[in-house]
Amino acid sequence: MKNIVVLVSGGGTNLQALIDAQKAGKLPNGRISCVISSNPKAHALNRAKDVGISTRVIEPKSFSSKVQYMQALMEALFQEYADLIVLAGFMTILDAQIIRAYHNQIINVHPSLIPAFCGVGYYGIHVHEQVLERGVKYTGATVHFVNEIADDGPIILQKPVAVRPNDTPQTLQQRVMEEAEWQILPEAVRLFCTNRLEVQDRTVIIK
Ligand code: GAR
């Protein structure tokens, strides 16, 4: 059984999708063993507590440097015996030490079709603002392994979502979550936990 540690910072709807998948028996060979939040007020923490998942808060502002913050995060991941780390709306870029320690064991959900609308500065609602500003007809979501460059790692799953003429950033964000993120994130976790993912260079093969 693989220990899944979910890192969050906010509302936690993607965490909820994972909790629901686990309850429905859709995460065989995996269990959400801990939720770590960078924000003590994150609603995601309530979602975890409601179903008895252990939680930790590790806040950047409690540390005098990013190096020390990342060290504390890494120690927590070791203590939790993490096999898979899921970034589910986690708003801090991990440092190279953690990424190297958990090579191809960290996955991130991003609210666009990578390589569009991604990288440093593209997060949360800002992604959807940029999508509408550019006038693309399709956006979507991507789940990918994390490497040392933001939103650059091997892509596991993607799902497109049509942009509607009357969309606002908020309506688009909601539809991208419902139609794409909440589906492909649990599916990618299932594939990982059942050893179905093989990374060859920049490509993920689904076995
Ligand atoms: C999600 O849309 C997720 O894809 C995005 O933040 C939101 C978190 O929502 N993540 C990023 O933009 C990371 N670059 P949630 O807390 O309700 O899951």
- Portion of residues within helices: 25-40%
Residues in β-strands, percent: 25-35%
User: SSE string, helix = H, strand = E?
Assistant: EHEHEHEHEHEEHEE
Choose one word for the global shape.
globular
Would you tell me the structural class of the helices and strands? alpha/beta
**Number of alpha- plus pi-helical segments:** 6
> Any ligands, ions or cofactors bound here, and which?
glycinamide ribonucleotide
Mean pLDDT over the residues: 98
Extended strand count? 9
Measured between the Cα atoms of the first and last residue, the distance is 19 Å
Largest sheet: 7 strands, mixed
Q: Kindly provide the radius of gyration, computed on alpha-carbon positions and rounded to a whole number of angstroms.
A: 16 Å
Low-confidence stretches: none
Strand order of the largest sheet: 3-2-1-4-5-6-7
Structural write-up:
The chain is α/β, with parallel strands linked by helices and 207 residues long. The chain is built from six helices and nine strands, in the order E-H-E-H-E-H-E-H-E-H-E-E-H-E-E. The chain has helices at 13-23, 43-50, 66-79, 96-101, 125-134, 169-193; strands at residues 2-8, 30-37, 54-57, 84-87, 106-110, 138-145, 155-162, 197-200, 203-206. Strands 3-2-1-4-5-6-7 form a seven-stranded mixed sheet, with helices on one face. It has a two-stranded antiparallel sheet with strand order 8-9. The mean pLDDT is 98. It binds glycinamide ribonucleotide. Glycinamide ribonucleotide (GAR) binds at residues 8, 10-14, 44, 88-89, 109-111, 123-124, 127, 177, 181.
